[in-house]
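Example record

One chain of 110 residues, shown exactly as stored in the release files.
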Amino acid sequence: MGKFIITKRKDGEYQFNLKAGNGEIILTSEGYAAKSGCKNGIESVKVNSQIDSRFERRTSVNNKDYFVLKAGNGEIIGKSQLYSTKLGMENGITSVKENAPTAEIIDETN
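Predicted structure tokens for this chain:
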């Protein structure tokens, strides 16, 4: 079962990582000034991860594949790690789709 882990960055912003059941990070959020914004981002991932068109497949400057998940307004909610193959990236997207809806939320900022 997946987990959303909320942490605080050195700059004071909140972020979350979505981890798959095996503990691997499959999506990392942008930074949020407030924890409430971070929690709203998690809810947005749960909804938008079920809509394939919200996943944007990209290639990095060093030719690695990755994806971003966007909200309905086009804002990026989170991005993946870099993958060495397109198949790896597609498997990452599938993992987000499967894990996000039922993932528990763990707040490590308390």
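Notes: The helical segments are 35-48, 86-99.
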